[in-house]
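retry 2 of 3: previous attempt timed out while embedding pyridoxal-5'-phosphate. Reduced batch size to 1 and resubmitted. Inputs unchanged:
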Amino acid sequence: MKAHSRCWAEVDLDALCQNVSAIRQRVGAGVRVLAVVKADAYGHGLRQIAAHLMGNGTDVFGVANMVEARAIRSVGNGSPVLMLGACLPEEVEDAVHEGVMPTLSSVDEARWFSMAAEKAGVTVPVQVKVDTGMGRLGVVAEEAAVVICDIARLPGLRLEGVYTHYAAAEEDEAFSARQWRRFKGLLTELARLGVVVPSVHAGNSAALLHESEVGLNLVRPGLLVYGIVPPGSRPMACELAGRVRPVLSLKCRVSFVKGISAGDSLSYGRTFVAEKAMRVATVTAGYGDGYPRAASNRAQVLVGGRRCRVVGRVTMDQTLVDVTGLDQVRTGDEAVLVGRQGEERVTVSELAGWCGMVPWEILTGISYRVPRIYQNGCAA
Ligand SMILES: *Cc1c(COP(=O)(O)O)cnc(C)c1O
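retry 2 succeeded.
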């Protein structure tokens, strides 16, 4: 038996590279691509994804902590790494020593880096975050020009970037336009003051799809790199959604098949009671693998090339599906939780929808127990 025979994720590296090319085409030459690889590259495996992206059109990597930054360094030293969150006080020295670009939201934070840089005898490239409406990090847009000038004057620091983050680019056109205006206003002010900023960026995946003007000179997609289109109500501004394809599939096996009678209940809490005789398959994945418990009685799983509904509660290691009418189902058959089987496909977004979750949550929830199997390595 192979080690991945119970529940595994297949990661299609060709799809990954094609998605990055599609993003490149969308933004055009002269715009650099920062691939967001936080949270284990959205569950795809950070080291392997970073290694493949390094040779395939990624200029910068975005991470959430120093452990992720080190994982990138361990596969290749050349690529710049941007910490997307704020550094904690104890992370400052490590970031400086390991050449990780911090995101700054205040002059105070900048002073810590300036001091650490002087102590280490290095110049640290820094990026300043501007809050245009996300409300999470950043200097308020209208005060940002002054703060950026103060930061740029600190010894040991070099202003590498200024960026902002959309709060609702996939659904709220008016609010996104307001964020864009505030950011543009700041950039105009900086130009007037003669401040040179090498990297200026705002575009996450949703902005790349829904905003017509995302160019600036760098974009910052996460979900789209992995071939998933963020669900949203706004019309698409470009063809990009049709040019990406999912990188990850999540698969498991049928471990038992049985018939049940009307009145029989299934799984914990007895939330499903059969109304008639049925055939039920037990499959080898559960919430311990990251298949959400919220999928109970709602989601569909592909078995025998057909969509079969989940019946009863998802348990830690096993899930039950209704295979009534499928005569050929046998112990050992493959069951697809996310991905393609025959003519059918279940997408991450569809599973997220059934579960009242977002695609980001499904991908990053796939647990350590699930081996990632890499396929179709693309040429560098
Ligand atoms: C996570 C993150 C992104 C990527 O977002 P997607 O919606 O996955 O494209 C971009 N920028 C910042 C600051 C982030 O934290």
